[in-house]
Structures are given as structure tokens and as C-alpha cells.
Specification:
The protein is mostly beta strands. Helices cover 5% and strands 37% of the residues. The longest helix has 17 residues, at 2-18. The model is unreliable at 1-34 and 337-369 (pLDDT under 50).
Length: 443
């Protein structure tokens, strides 16, 4: 019987080896005689990816602080364009605008720094937001078209040539990779999708009709990919990318996986749109009025699927699944909207005020309408209790309680806040483009 089973397995393996792979997919064979240890499941940590998790919900796994105090303020060796990663031990990992990746302890002490590999005469930078994988490794896509795996102790484990140009990612922020539940990683660069195993070997490759944008997301049947025009694809090797639907407009920052069947995205900066994954149908959950200046997405997903986001006019807004507005709070009085409900139009008194929205006659210094600062602010964070953490382009940072009360952490925490990340229970990390890092926590 055992001999018969062995013959059956051998025949099955031979048949499988003869099945041709489609032109869009590549796979690397594994040696069955070599032992492999593979960590699977979701990566551990307070923020294993930008926007907290692989679904990009902006929902903290722990409570945000309610009455935070500044714990430390440190400076990185250079600026950073990407949100830091926080692992399950509270350690902070930063990908800098130079060729360095730096890790700090939870107290802000440098543990190590890694120089990204580059060929002679070539410069290298990070081309997409880094992510933590299930095994704790940090995955970094570089401008030289390579994937570099860095161990938790700061050792380069592997370097894989992706076979595609990633240089445009440096200018455009790149597409956030996806840490897969099987321990591997999915990467998008321009129109190319690539899946790799935990050791960095390429398992599959596919080509889209247009360039990916925003972030890759976990889907019910493979990896979900959004494009700049709003089209959504699902990719599950060895099949080709399958069109799921379209948001019907431009996505500046990609989408969010709100629940098992719903994607949410800010479309054309003006609408919050929900897309039903099984059917591809869409509906507009909310639209930004003229005075709001548009939504400063992406959204965070709060309790019950509530979509929370900021508006350029200095407001925090929340909408439930029916589109009903649940929250409207003014967090930036410099915008001219001083009342909790946005207030009546107010005049600007500074001739040096930022360009108004939309910029035509009737807005600005001599107008009854306020000017609106159109510089993008970091996306908000939420927790399960309903707290909201925000940072404005002006440097203003604060916490909004579930009751709608605001606690200001500082009028100007730094010159240009770049990201917010939860850093553990009742801790909030603010990272600034120029390299300033500030940790706030409840006493």
C-alpha cells in the first residue's frame, strides 16, 4: 500500500510539473529535501504597515492617549517620507530619504542602522513604504528595483532583483506592499505585480492594464490592487488579474478595506465612495461641500464601519454606513471655521494666507469666505473607543475624545507632520518630514 501511495504521488507530481504556466506568471521551485521554516499569519506589532495594518484602516489596536504628555523628542539622521513601523516589542523602524533604514528602541535609543545595498556608482533610496512580514523581517523596495529583507536585528537577509523599474516610486511615494498571510509579500511597481516568498524568491508575476496606486490590500480571493483612475483588480496566482469594479474617479491615496466586502476611498478629493467587492457596485457615502475644500484622505475606519477623515478646511468628519454625518469638529481655527459645526463663512485677515479653494473670485482676503490651506495633512487615526488623533499641515496635533472634546498636543509640534502611528497602549508617535520624531503618551 505504501509503495502504491508513493507511485501515486510521483505520478501526480509529474503531471503537475508538465502543466504550462501562463505567460503572466513565474514561479520558483522549492527543494522538498531542504527544511524550511515559514512564519504565517498577520504581522505582529502596533503598526506593521503604514495606516497601522495591511487593510490600511487607521484603527489602532490599542487605546489612543486621552491626556497625552510629550515623552521624548528625537531627530533622525535625515528626513523621512514614510510612516514608521512599530513591532510587537514597541521598536520603531524608519526608512529615511537617504539610503538608511534605522531602528530605535521604544525609548527612542538607536539600536541599529542599515545601509541599503547599491552597485558601484549607483545611488539608492527607498521607493515604497516598508512593511513588517510575519517572520518579523522588514521588507524594503529600493529605487534600484530590488527587494531587501532586513532581519529584526539589523542584518540583510536577502536582496532580490524584481526585474522592473521602481524609480518613479521615489517621486510618487510608491505603492504600499502587502504582507501576505502565507509569510510572503506582494509588490506593485507601475503596471507590474509580483508575489514573493518569505525568503525573497519570486513566485508569480502579472501585468496590469494601468499603473497601480495607493496600496495593495488583502482581498477575499487574492490581493486587491487599485489604480490611479480608480479601477480595482483582484490577483490570485496562477490566474490573471481580474477586474472587480471601479470607483469612478481618481484615487490619490488608494483604498481602505473597511470590512469583509467593502472598500472605501476618497475619490477626486471630493467624495467618499464605498465599493462592494463581490458585485463591484459603488455608492457615494459623502460629498465635500465647496467650503470644505475637499476631503484630505484616506479615511480611517472606526466603530461600526464609520468613515473618519479630515477636510482641508480644518474639520474632522465622520460618516456612518448610510452616509449620515455623525461627527463634525473644527480642529484648526486658522482655517476660518471656528465653530464646532464649521461655522458661518469668515473672512481671512492675513494677506499671506495660503491659496484659497477653489481660488476664483469671491474667495480670499477681500471675501466673506475663508481661505483654505490645500497642503495635505496626515491621515487621522481612530481607536475602538472613538478617540481620533489628528495632525494638521500647520503642525497642530491633537486628540478628539469620543464626546467631541479636543485636547491639543501642540500648536506647532514640528514644521511639517508627515504621519501618525499608534506606538502601544495610550501612545501616539508623530513623525515629521524633516526628521523630527515626537512620542506622546498618557502619564
Amino acid at each position: 500500500m505504501a509503495r502504491s501511495i508513493r507511485w501515486s504521488l510521483a505520478i501526480a507530481a509529474s503531471v503537475a510539473a508538465c502543466v504550462p504556466l501562463a505567460s503572466f506568471a513565474l514561479a520558483d521551485a522549492l527543494d522538498p529535501n531542504m527544511p524550511h521554516t515559514v512564519s504565517v499569519g498577520a504581522p505582529k506589532g502596533a503598526a506593521a504597515s503604514d495606516r497601522v495594518d495591511s487593510k490600511r484602516t487607521g484603527l489602532s489596536k490599542t487605546k489612543l492617549p486621552s491626556q497625552p504628555k510629550e515623552v521624548f523628542r528625537r531627530a533622525l539622521p535625515s528626513g523621512t517620507s514614510y510612516a514608521p513601523l512599530i513591532d510587537d516589542q514597541g521598536r520603531l523602524t524608519f526608512a529615511l530619504t537617504t539610503s538608511l533604514v534605522v531602528r530605535w528602541s521604544s525609548e527612542g535609543k538607536e539600536l541599529w542602522r542599515v545601509q541599503l545595498p547599491a552597485s558601484t556608482g549607483s545611488s539608492v533610496t527607498v521607493a515604497a513604504p516598508p512593511v513588517i512580514l510575519a517572520n518579523g523581517n522588514i521588507a524594503v523596495v529600493t529605487s534600484l528595483g530590488e527587494l531587501v529583507m532586513i532581519s529584526p536585528t539589523g542584518t540583510i537577509r536577502s536582496t532580490t532583483a524584481l526585474g522592473v523599474s521602481t524609480s518613479t516610486g521615489v517621486r510618487e511615494g510608491g505603492v504600499t506592499p502587502l504582507a501576505l498571510d502565507n509569510g510572503g509579500i506582494a509588490i506593485a511597481a507601475n503596471r507590474t505585480l509580483i508575489e514573493l516568498s518569505a525568503d525573497g524568491s519570486v513566485r508569480a508575476r502579472a501585468t496590469l492594464d494601468e499603473a497601480a496606486a495607493g496600496a495593495l490590500l488583502p482581498g477575499p480571493e487574492g490581493t486587491l490592487v487599485t489604480t490611479a483612475s480608480g479601477t480595482v483588480y483582484s490577483f490570485k496566482p496562477p490566474g490573471a488579474p481580474r477586474k472587480v469594479g471601479s470607483f469612478g474617479g481618481a484615487l490619490r491615496k488608494g483604498a481602505v478595506r473597511a470590512d469583509d466586502r467593502t472598500l472605501l476611498a476618497v475619490v477626486d478629493n471630493r467624495r467618499i465612495v464605498a465599493l462592494d467587492i463581490p458585485t463591484g457596485s459603488t455608492h457615494t457615502r459623502a460629498s465635500a461641500g465647496l467650503l470644505l475644500g475637499g476631503f484630505d484622505g484616506p479615511v480611517a475606519v472606526g466603530k461600526g464601519g464609520t468613515a473618519v477623515t479630515g477636510a482641508y478646511a480644518g474639520l474632522i468628519l465622520a460618516f456612518d454606513s448610510t452616509g449620515a454625518e455623525k461627527t463634525r469638529i473644527s480642529v484648526d481655527p486658522s482655517s476660518g471655521f471656528g465653530l464646532p459645526d464649521g461655522g458661518a463663512p469668515a473672512s481671512s485677515t492675513s494677506p499671506m494666507a495660503p491659496p484659497p479653494y477653489p481660488g476664483g473670485p469671491g474667495f480670499g482676503v477681500l471675501s466673506a469666505f475663508p481661505t483654505v490651506d490645500m497642503r495635505p495633512s496626515p491621515a487621522v487615526l481612530v481607536d475602538a473607543d472613538g478617540r481620533i488623533a489628528f495632525a494638521r499641515a500647520s503642525g497642530r496635533v491633537g486628540i478628539v475624545s469620543p464626546e467631541g472634546n479636543m485636547t491639543l498636543l501642540g500648536e506647532r509640534v514640528c514644521n511639517r507632520p508627515g504621519s501618525l502611528q499608534p506606538a502601544g497602549n495610550k501612545k501616539l508617535l508623530v513623525t515629521c518630514d524633516e526628521g523630527t520624531v515626537v512620542l506622546f503618551a498618557d502619564p
